Every structure is written in C-alpha cells, then in structure tokens.
Amino acid sequence: MAGELKDNRGRGEAQWRWPSIHPEGRKFGLIGVALALLVLLWLDWEIIGWPLLGLAIFTFAFFRDPERVVPQGSNLIVSPADGLVSLIVQVPPPPELQGDDENGRGLGVEPVTRVSIFMSVFDVHINRAPVAGTVRRVVYIPGRFLNADLDKASEENERQHLLIEKADGQAIGFTQIAGLVARRIIPFVKPGDLVASGQRIGLIRFGSRVDVYLPAGTDSKVLLGQKVIAGETVLAEIGRQSLIEGVSL
Q1: Which of 59, 60, 79, 218 is deepest in the core (most CB within 10 A)?
Q2: Across residues 177-188, what is the average pLDDT?
C-alpha cells in the first residue's frame, strides 16, 4: 500500500482535509438527495423533504473513508475497526478458522483472547487489515441480525471470517459481524491477495462488530470500554503479555 512515511520526529506532512466518501455509499446518498429535492421542489412537502435531505447527508457521513496513519512493526496488530472495545474474552477460534487447509495453517482449537469492537452508526465502517500478509481465507456465513453488542452475535449473526498469514507464517484471524441494522458485509479482498497492515479490506453497512483473535501468548493492549481507531490503534504486540489497567472517569 503506497503512502507517505511519517514518524514521531516530525517527518512527513499533515493537514486537515474532508474525508472522502466510499463509492459504496455515494449511490445511497445521491438517491437520498434526489428524493429530498423531488419532495421539496416538486411536491413542496417541506415536513418530509428536509428530514430526507438530513438522512442523505447522514448517509454520506456514514460512508466516510478517512485516511489513517498506520503504525509500522512486524509484531504489531492494529485495530481493524473504529468503535468501542465491548468484549475481551478467552474463547476458542470459530470452526471456520481453526483447522489447516490447502491454503495454509489455521488458528487451532485452543482458547485465545478475542477482542470485540462494536461499531455504532456514528463510527467509520470501513474495515482494515490488522497485519500485513497474504489473505488465506474469506468465509461468509449467513445468519441472524441480533444486536452486535451481544456475545452470541459471534455465533448467530451474519458474519464473514478472514485469515491473514504474515510473512513469518503467523496466522491472524478476525470476523466481520452484521448487527441489528446491517444487512450486507462487503469484502474488498479474496484469498491469495497480499495486503498491507491497515489496508482497507471491506465494510459493513449500518452498525456492526469486528472480532479479532489474538495469537496464543499475546495480551490485548487496549482496555474494555476503550475507543479504538481502525488502522491506527495498536490492539496487541504478538508475544507480549502484561496486565494493563485503566480507570473510567
């Protein structure tokens, strides 16, 4: 993934800019604008037209796709999603990511730390690769549309499992989970693709969750209740274990 190198000693340039709108959302926003203008200018129904226009603006904002500065490090796992860390638990990886197959190694069956990130409708919904490597699996599972904040959403909701194998052979798995409003998970990658850490790999429409399965012997660097940013927040450092505590104020 091409990009400008920046560091903690001032190298590179930084300036504020309006975030772009992902193409997947432009059509929905434009449809909303067209309907609002039709109601306002032709039917003269302001009580309906203005809320429609507001909904169209919200749709554009929902599909915003800001640039991110991705920390570089071979052992770093960055957040694949914007949102709230809603669960940190020890669980076995999902069956679709466990065993080895012709494409490479799986995650095994032993419990590992799962970090769940809940995305509200106000968060950016573009998901990013937590590590650099080769995409080995993309497994879509149809399902229900329970509240994505619930633990059982990992096993019952519409979801998509992804497995990325790093250059050293370490496999990192994560799952995109649809929520109450979400009805479609859209992948940008397929098995065999090479991805950079923080590269855009897909999106989920309208409220959802992403689960990340950390390798054995690795603890989360984020805390329950913490806000994380896709492609920027470091979730974990592979092989590092330590208790980190925080106080909610």
Answers
A1: 79
A2: 76
CA distance 163 to 100: 11
Q: Which two tokens stand for residue 165?
A: 């194998």
Query: What's the rounded Cα separation, in Å, for the pair 24 and 26?
Result: 6
Cα dist from 56 to 52, 73, 194, whole Å: 6, 39, 35
- In angstroms, the CA 38 to CA 51 distance is 13
CA atoms of 126 and 105, how far apart (whole Å): 27
The residue among 205, 201, 152 whose CA lies nearest residue 181 is 205
Each residue of 136-157: pLDDT tens digit? 999 998 866 555 555 555 666 7
Half-sphere exposure (Cβ direction) of 224: Cα atoms closer than 13 Å: 9
Is residue 164 within 8 A of residue 137, CB to CB? The reply is no
Distance CA 229, CA 236 (A): 13
Contact between 201 and 186 (Cβ < 8 Å):
no
Report the alpha-carbon distance of residue 67 to residue 33 in Å, rounded: 25
Assess contact for 235 and 215: CB atoms under 8 A.
Answer: no
Q: Can you tell me whether residue 163 is helix, strand or coil?
A: strand
- Catalytic residue among 116, 154, 197, 208, which? 208
Q: Is 120 a catalytic residue?
A: no
Lookup: tokens for 193: 């693709």
